[in-house]
Hints:
Blueprint lengths: L2 H30 L7 E3 L4 H6 L1 H11 L3 E4 L12 H11 L2 E6 L6 H10 L4 E4 L8 H19 L4 E5 L13 H8 L5 E6 H6 L4 H7 L4 E6 L1 E2 L10 E2 L8 H8 L6 E4 L9 H14 L3
Parallel strand pairs: 1-2, 1-10, 2-3, 3-4, 4-5, 5-6, 6-7, 7-10
Antiparallel strand pairs: 8-9
InterPro entries: IolE/XylAMocC-like, TAT_signal, Xyl_isomerase-like_sf, Xyl_isomerase-like_TIM-brl
GO molecular function: isomerase activity
Keywords: Isomerase
Amino acid sequence: MNKQRRKFLQIGGMLGVGAALFPYEIAARSAEIAKLSKFGLQLYSVKEEMAKDAAGTMRKLAGFGYKQFEGFDGGKGILWGMKPAECKSLLSDIGVDFISSHADVFKNLDEQAEQAAEVGMKYLICPYIGAQNSVEEWKNISERFNKAGATLKSHGLKFAYHNHDYTFKMLDGQLPQDILMANTDPDLVDFELDMYWSHVAGYDPLKYIAKFPGRFKLCHVKDAEPDGGDTHDRGVLLGAGEMPYAEIIKKSKKYGMEYFVVEQERFVGTTPLKAAEANAVYLSKLKV
């Protein structure tokens, strides 16, 4: 083989290897600079504004970059008095998905489920159940969740439970959150992890998600100021606290987390709408 031909084959081989590796290199680099393409807001964060002008407030939030909403019953139902068709039209106009709503899942569940399904929601969520006095009571709560989940499944929806800190406080040698995980049917009940509440209760949210892969599909993203001790009043704007959300979000997706919902309940030196805008900016720039 002459030198010219050998050199040609060597160059060709090198190009071949480079071409084969090129897509993987792109993927690796893309992973390094990946951003969170969609994130939501729990509308309770702007509850006063929602009470005054729900449609106008939702339009403003969409302008901040939110692509998903999670609702709540503000006294006018989960659609704030809007008809499903009206709400669906608004969402289409502003380019937002209404993924879920906190609701009283033990009253008029079929009626609420019909409304939720019509606007495209995927979940109705129990936002609060209160601390129970015994392990047996928590098992009874689990069964109520299973029944609510079965009702919602018949409407094409899913049930989820949103925790506070009380499910992360030991009771008779057991963690109430563990009891719920063990006694609810994964086919009927998902969970929305409020990462702030687990954090201030002393449980690493990422480690807890890893213990139960596939059970936590939604989460509340809110930050806690450092060195707060046991106090619950530690909420700050995203990025101003001690919770490493770039890592939490990136790794939690590996365990089945799908929806990242901002919630802000404490406002220091800001307003609810300004906080919502600042949190959207933070998440839009976060490398996950």
